[in-house]
């Protein structure tokens, strides 16, 4: 089989099965595992898959820059945001992550809601300026421009001195095997620090993130209260997560 044919086969397998197992592909095509791994390295270099131990998974489209992500599935993000905003109770404290879906959550909060919002995102803080009864605490640190949030040691230390009733965090990948992932190690650490300071943590994930993976793990499934997504119950990944005991809140 020519290299171009192997490439098409691997991409087709990724689209159909949602993963590639190098050992299985090697046996199927009569190739060495090293040959398959080289092909996967080439695909990963082009941004077409996320390599993991033993093979590859679909790469998340949410690794694009902040401006580009604002145009990705805006209706799905709005539905997720509205469902998430309904979880915020009057006079409660909310830790709100950064990113485009979290920004939609800020917009979905009732303007007259009395609450405390703790965030490491300057864009979230600005979005809440017209919420007169929302007390806003902005955590500082090094600005990670990809997601317009503060990260690094200073931000993590600041997060350790707050507490909240609810934490809403975003991720770039949601996969039954790879778990909850994002594309930057420091951002992943910041998300863990935020989640650790709340009584409940829900993950915000519009449908394009379901079944995909990024490089760095954020949290294990047992550390979250649930997943909020607009992906329907018929989605195969949602079915797998439900079977694993993950609470899935359907948005929309």
In short:
With 252 residues, the chain is an alpha/beta fold. It contains 10 helices and 15 strands.
Draw up the topology in text.
Blueprint: H1 3-17, E1 20-21, H2 22-29, H3 33-45, E2 50-52, E3 55-57, H4 66-69, H5 74-85, E4 93-96, H6 100-108, E5 115-119, H7 122-127, E6 134-138, E7 142-144, E8 149-151, H8 153-159, E9 164-170, E10 173-175, E11 179-182, H9 185-195, E12 198-204, E13 216-219, E14 226-229, H10 236-243, E15 248-250
Helix pairs in contact: 2-3, 5-6
Key words describing this protein structure:
single chain, alpha/beta, seven-stranded parallel beta sheet, 10 helices, 15 strands
Strand order of the largest sheet: 6-5-4-9-12-14-15
Average pLDDT across residues? 90
Shape: elongated
Strand/helix succession: HEHHEEHHEHEHEEEHEEEHEEEHE
Approximate strand percentage: 15-25%
Main beta-sheet strand count, sense and barrel state: 7 strands, parallel
What is the radius of gyration computed over CA atoms, rounded to a whole number of angstroms? 19 Å
Q: What's the helical proportion of residues?
A: 25-40%
- pLDDT < 50 stretches: none
Structural class: alpha/beta
Summed up, the helix count is 10
Q: Tell me the distance between the termini.
A: 45 Å
- Extended strand count: 15
Can you tell me about this structure?
With 252 residues, the protein is an alpha/beta fold. Helix content is 37%, strand content 24%. The protein is built from ten helices and 15 strands. Strands 6-5-4-9-12-14-15 form a seven-stranded parallel sheet, with helices on both faces. Strands 1-3-2 form a three-stranded antiparallel sheet. Helix 2 packs across helix 3 and helix 5 crosses helix 6. It is elongated. The termini are far apart. The mean pLDDT is 90.
